[in-house]
């Protein structure tokens, strides 16, 4: 029954009063992959993850996680999943070792292998020196490594990580992702939410959420190939004036400034987008270099979360 | 088996955290001892030394003798002497005195006149206890009056059982035991769980195989032990400093306390499912604590309360526990004789625990 998908969700919705935190979400997460959830704060990432592990009851829809239906039989699911909360949720007034021991006891990890497993995790997650330190006194990166170590201690089939890197420095983020790849290679399915583009790009597959709605999903390459937009890069001496000129221009879907460069999104159906942009800039008297380029994930994100050419009500 | 291990893991963790939480650890010992010292000495229904002023307008040998006898009762403490009744009223109004004594100029004639009162006592009646005490002074004989009237003999003789010296601590400390345990047990459990919710620990815990029952029972076990330690402390201090008797069986008392602690912990658990923050948990605890002090028979005799207040009091576990402690410690009653109180505590525990278990889900919504 467990099939090739670790998670399958159909029409999953969650409303908090009038707020539709998640609307009609369909998901298929293949086993052994890192599946990313990309979206701004408040887009429903945490709510979805909480529904998938049975913490929240969906208003509508259903999900099957590792062959178990949630929220119905969430209790059977608990031993098979690891969950890392957005906020550090281990015990700050206990040491690293005590926290790991506690988690091992809670998951009924075989007593005989317990000490070896904990040593292995301390080693792997670079916490050997902190083993007697109170968890509350550690740095953000150390706390995050401890949280991951605790989440994987019982060797779960599925890891649910809710913005795991929001409180750590770039180096820690890189190390953290190296750890995730290692886990995925050993067969663990990982679902991770983030609002960092570079992290999203590392996922095998990802879904982009915007105000509770899934606006795109696929591999990063697929998403980049199907933005429905031409990407025009503009290198201007005065990017501010260039942006001003393009913001007002017809057919320009969006303009984003990246340092001295502008990334301009032009709908795909238009011919020769570079010439179009060049014309707009010239008519405003802005000197700039213009060239066509390929979409980055950020362009995809901008394109799909753009308030679509809204019809007047 | 796994379930038991998980439960013990929670208990172990709780003890570990408690050991590091010096303030809470201090409160376990500090609250009972300090409150016992404070209230053991402070609460005294045996009122003495009421601040008193006298206007002796007679100023005769007899009136002076009366005043000195009044002073010997120790009920009043004469702090002022004034000339007129008006000055006395002024002192009463300013709150400087609680009792004012007016000895009129015709005191000696009034003493032998059976139709007229010889002395006027003005009392600050806003405190019923004070007016009650002042009323005792009415029965005081006045010196040569005794030869005029036939010697009075009491029709009713009162014998105070269990506390013949009428010492207040004997009554207060068994009651205080109930109040202290109510406060600490309820507060500790409620806060212990709400704190985990506030810190986010609960979101992690409910995503593990731990069941709500394992979590609740595991968290509560250390506090049962703490409650028993507090009980021992109160008994010790009560015996050493206040000479409170322990006439019944100690085992009975501990059994009664176990039932009472269970009731309070259940209530604490229920509060923890309703409160979102530690502050809310604290407010809810005090919402229960205040009636537990006032309506349980701790401060006022239970039988003297209006029916409505008595019904309310019957709901509170403290009421039943105070009956148990006073019964066992002072009257050498056995648990068997006091079984209705035990049943009440058991019923309360069952209801509160069920309500808490129903409310506590492994969900966030």
Describe this structure in a few short sentences.
The complex is a heterodimer of chains A (313) and B (365). Chain A has 313 residues and is of the alpha/beta class.
Description of the structure:
Chain A has 2 domains: 5-223, 3-Layer(aba) Sandwich (Rossmann fold); 228-294, 2-Layer Sandwich (Alpha-Beta Plaits). Chain A is elongated, with a radius of gyration of 23 Å. Chain A has 11 helices and 14 strands. Helices cover 35% and strands 29% of the residues of chain A. The two termini of chain B are 30 Å apart. The interface between A and B is medium-sized, with 30 and 28 residues.
Features:
heterodimer; A: Rossmann fold; Alpha-Beta Plaits; 2 domains; six-stranded mixed sheet; 11 helices; B: 365 residues; alpha/beta; D-Maltodextrin-Binding Protein, domain 2; four-stranded mixed sheet; 65% helix; 6% strand; elongated
Helix residue percentage of chain B:
55-70%
Give a short account of the largest sheet of chain B.
4 strands, mixed
Q: What would the average pLDDT of chain B be, to the nearest integer?
A: 87
Name the overall outline of chain B.
elongated
Structural class by secondary-structure content of chain B: alpha/beta
Q: Within the largest sheet of chain B, what's the order of strands? A: 2-1-3-4
**CATH topology of the largest domain in chain A, what is it called?**
Rossmann fold
Quaternary state of this entry equals: heterodimer
> Tally of extended strands of chain A?
14
Please give the CATH architecture of the largest domain in chain A: 3-Layer(aba) Sandwich
Structural class of chain A: alpha/beta
H-E order of chain B = HHEHEHEHEHHHHHHHHHH
- The unreliable regions of chain B are 145-151
